[in-house]
Amino acid sequence: MGTNNIIFLEVIEWFDESGKEIVHRTPESGSGEIKWGAQLIVRESQAAVFFYNGKAYDAIEPGRHTLTTGNIPILNKIMSIPWGMTSPLRAEVYFVNMKVFISLKWGTRDPVAFKDSELGLIRLRSFGVFNVQVVQPVLFVNSLVGTQGVYTTAEIESYLNQVIVSRFNDYLGANLDTVLNLPGRYESIAGGLIKALQEDFSRFGLCLSELYINAITPPADVQKAIDDKSRVGLFDDMNRLIQMKSAMAMEKAAESQGTAGAGVGMGLGFMMPAMFADALKASQTGLVAGTQDTCPDCGKAVGHDAKFCPSCGHQIVVFSQCAECGKNLPPTARFCPRCGRESGKKPAAKKCSHCGSENLPSSVYCNQCGEKLER
Fold this sequence. Notes:
4-stranded antiparallel sheet; 7-stranded mixed sheet; alpha+beta; single chain; rod-shaped
């Protein structure tokens, strides 16, 4: 502090227009010569502290005060006997803002070393915000502002940041084994860090009301390891879910068989997936035994009771069987082509008047040319 620049103080007050100043020095530079009877105005949520010869004295509460030894007894300790209605007191007044300051920032400027139990020595970055309030203004001025020469908000914030980062490193080293366990632990780490910092802040006359950790950032390769572990955990959970659902299905199948047939139910539970797969395959390929015939025109499989092929539209011939050997016989066949036995029936076929083709007796349209057949 310089002493050459002397400022005469008659009205001493300060109004924080920005709302962001923790402490304000009056005068801002040099020394102030406080006149006898000067007016000191202390606003709400403020405290005024006289700083004289390297020491801060008692704080003065909000109100309008006349600076005389009678009105402010503390001045007896720092003022000489007035001479000519003036005082030779050269001092500064620090106005301390007593409100809670929120969202002050803290963070690691450079990565800090951390010995991880699984990954070895790695470097971490971290940042967040904290809330602070001055609770002992005289101690605050004596320990931090006046002694350290730190009184701007930015300087105080920077100094407190160093304290927080130092304790943060110590706390992580003592309470965290590996960064793989970091997710979900930010709140507990912040709570423990607040307790570790309370004594440090109280030595400056400050109260650390809240501290938040926004991020603890490991190197890129460590972040990838954490992501990989999360994915493996997800797959493990899915496998356990599938196993649980399978067990529930088998248990339900066993219960449905009753006590006597519990073993059969369990067997069905194991066989169900294969049975469903076979049934689905058969339904998709259309090869279920005993339900299919073949179209004589395109060769595609058709239903046993189908009258027309679903692929080409060809009329399906209704076969009869030989009474001797059981071979299918065409409607117009008089003898079995396998054993030679006479069929014993001569169905009357409908002949198309347009193309001459023979059709089944029940046909309405010709199977070759499509013309309507005569009844």
